[in-house]
Specification:
- It is globular and about 55 Å long.
- The protein is built from 7 helices and 5 strands; from the N terminus they run ααβαβααβαββα.
- A 5-stranded parallel β-sheet has the order 2-1-3-4-5, with helices on both faces.
- By secondary structure, the protein is α/β, with parallel strands linked by helices.
- The longest helix is centred in the last third of the chain and has 23 residues.
- About 55% of the residues lie in helices and about 10% in strands.
Length: about 200
């Protein structure tokens, strides 16, 4: 049983482990991936395309968060940037989940909304989320640029796409912390291209 006197040490350890994961996330491979993804997103948005995002649980909230940063603003005033979180429409999610199965909730939306030149960002801490995998497969078939944000080993998603951000951890919370930091950095770079 954890006692109150241990709280401070537990808190310190959790924060330190998160900071270590975050620092290790700025590897050459991850930075190169983010740079390539930024170029693809900017090109897509300049040519009338959009960014689609999907994920489950905490990753779903991150997908919504980043879509909001693009549509609203991150740090600078600029035009709204086309972005949709595929995690937000409860009628679509429940209808597709009920009629086709939960693994199809994102792919059906990719089929209806995705066009060649668009970008799909799939978030899965394990890299093994069946609905994100199915959305990735379909997006690739349709000619979208696809990026995956995963944990250390990348799961099944990593070998599917050339753009993979791997948070160097097996702890879901620290993976998500690295993902949101990387996605915020991506927003900053993309937004700088469109701000006046």
């Amino acid at each position: 049983m954890i006692v109150k006197s241990d709280y401070k040490n537990m808190l310190r350890q959790a924060i330190q482990l998160g900071a270590e994961t975050l620092a290790a996330s700025s590897s050459a491979e991850n930075l190169e991936m983010l740079e390539k993804l930024a170029v693809k997103i900017v090109d897509s948005l300049k040519n009338g395309g959009k960014v689609l995002l999907c994920g489950n649980g905490g990753s779903a909230s991150q997908a919504q968060h980043i879509a909001a940063e693009f549509v609203g603003r991150f740090k600078r005033e600029r035009r709204s940037l086309a972005s949709i979180a595929l995690t937000t429409d409860t009628s679509i999610l429940t209808a597709v989940g009920n009629d086709y199965g939960y693994e199809q909730i994102f792919s059906r939306q990719v089929e209806s909304l995705g066009r060649p030149g668009d970008v799909l960002i799939g978030l899965s801490t394990s890299g093994n989320s069946p609905n994100v995998i199915r959305a990735t497969e379909l997006a690739l078939e349709l000619g979208l640029t696809v990026a995956s944000f995963t944990g250390r080993n990348g799961g099944k998603l990593a070998p599917m796409v050339p753009l993979v951000f791997r948070a160097p951890s097996d702890d879901t919370s620290h993976i998500q912390e690295a993902h949101i930091t990387a996605l915020h950095a991506l927003c900053d770079v993309v937004e700088s291209t469109f701000s006046s």
